[in-house]
Every structure is written in structure tokens, then in C-alpha cells.
Amino acid sequence: MKAKRHAKILDIIRSYSVNTQEELLKYLNKSGFNVTQATVSRDIKELRLIKTLGGDGNYHYSTVQQEGENISSKFYSLFSDTVRNIDYAGNIVVVKCLSGMAMAACAALDALNRPNIVGTISGDNTFLCVMRDENNAIDFVSELKKLRE
To answer: Which of the ends of the chain has fewer CB neighbours closer than 10 A, N or C?
Structure first.
């Protein structure tokens, strides 16, 4: 059932400009998938969906890599548009984003597969990067702050 639902989600985001989890939930319900918002949230994470800026000026869900697109340029664009503050404590980098955008920015960062990042975790407006050591955190914060400018 999960594989069918994931396939349907990918079909939905290719066919429609889906801006929110609630919108995706409605499309899934109309398609016969009786799921909760929590399930949709997990599916988005498992499918590594991110929000990208559409031609209409709104963010919508898309897959991490689409034909002809470079994930690093997507990340830099999304990052500069959504990140509001960057700091670190020890080996943990804290990135504060616009409300609702942390998961997308974090997923885009994850897709870059940076070797100095041990792992990430995201909330609604903040995500954390666990770095290999404090020096990596300092360097990464410096790099991210330059991107934001």
C-alpha cells in the first residue's frame, strides 16, 4: 500500500502544483488513499520531496532531482530565499528559516551528500546539522552565511 501511495504522490506533484501538505492530503483522499497528515509528512520525508519556486511565484512540492536540474543550484536558491539566521553550538549548526520552509531547505541540503555532515533533523522553521566536529561547524556556518548574502 505504501509503495502505491508513494507512486500516487509522485504522480500528483507532477500533475498539479501542490503547495501544502494539506493540499497533498486532499488529492490523496480523492484518489482513495485514506491517510492522515502525519502519514503525508512521513511520505514527503521518505520521498525526499522539496519545495521549489514555481513559475507562478509560489513554492510547490517537487522531487529532489528532476531532469536537467542541478540540485546544488536548487539548494542555493531555496536557501537564500528561506533562511533567516545561522548559528552553531559545538558541532551542531542551527539554521532558522521562514515558517514551513525548514524541511525543504534541509532536504535539499541532505541531497548534496556533504561528507562533513553526520546528519540533519528538521522542524517547521528550524533545522539542525550535526557536523563531524566544531571546526566543520564553524566553516559550514561561514559558508552558509556567505550564501545568504
So the answer is: C
Compute the average pLDDT of residues 133-143.
94
Mean pLDDT of 85-97: 96
Q: Which helix (H) or strand (E) holds 49?
A: none
Taking the domain 71-148, which CATH number applies?
Answer: 3.30.1360.40
CA distance 104 to 120: 12
Q: Model confidence at 45, in pLDDT bands (50, 70, 90)?
A: confident
Q: Contact, 38 vs 68, CB < 8 A?
A: no
Alpha helix positions (H), 16-96: 21-30, 37-46, 71-82
May I ask the CATH architecture of the domain 2-47?
Answer: Orthogonal Bundle (1.10)
Look at residues 109, 121, 116 and name the one whose alpha carbon lies nearest to residue 77.
109
Overall size of the chain counted in residues? 149
